[in-house]
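Quick note —
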Amino acid sequence: MNAQSRLALSFAGLLLAVQPGHAQSGSTPPLLSGTRLDISAEGVVNRAPDLAMINAGVVTQALTAAAAMQANASRMAATVAALKRAGVADRDIQTAAISLSPQYRYAENKAPEITGYQASNQVNVRFRDIKRAGTILDALVAQGANQINGPSFAVEKADAALDEARVAAIKAARARADLYAQAAGLRVKRILSISESQGYAPPPYPMPVMMARAEKAADTAIEPGEQRLSVNVAVSFELE
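Predicted structure written out below.
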């Protein structure tokens, strides 16, 4: 087959591909014979969180880098052991950051002088028994943790709750569409499209920014409250 024949065949195939009778099913949007109405709606459900997350750490200082790291490792081992004795699973303890930095003395007209070293080790911890979280935090401090931040809360298995929010969002969108249609002297014929965006995301682990007091005055209270889970939908209706 020569080049001219191949070109003619390709052109014929292109014409065949664009014929209406050969269009793929579902490749074209539904034909609109009435009025299009676009609605945004939110569905919300509230759940008691079943997961608490905190960041706990140990900061130590010593004259040498090795001594600072050794002291830090010893106190961190005691901290992690306290977590495990309290029933926190290995999978719920994750190292977040380890650092070692020199400490300087600054004087006018003099180069900075290293006076020692500071070592830091932080872990992210998840508590599945939220009621015991406060007691565990106090135990951590007693075992050497001197840096604690949090907690943040989450619903671990949120799928069922989010499905409820989806149903609520669609109902809200349909009710609003009926309202607009009635006000305009029309009625809702059908739904043209639905898209979703979730308003809920599990909170990130908190960063360590707060120093905890070593002395214990009372049991630390943890109040989880409620978690808000939401789904946003955009629904297009046809009115007639």
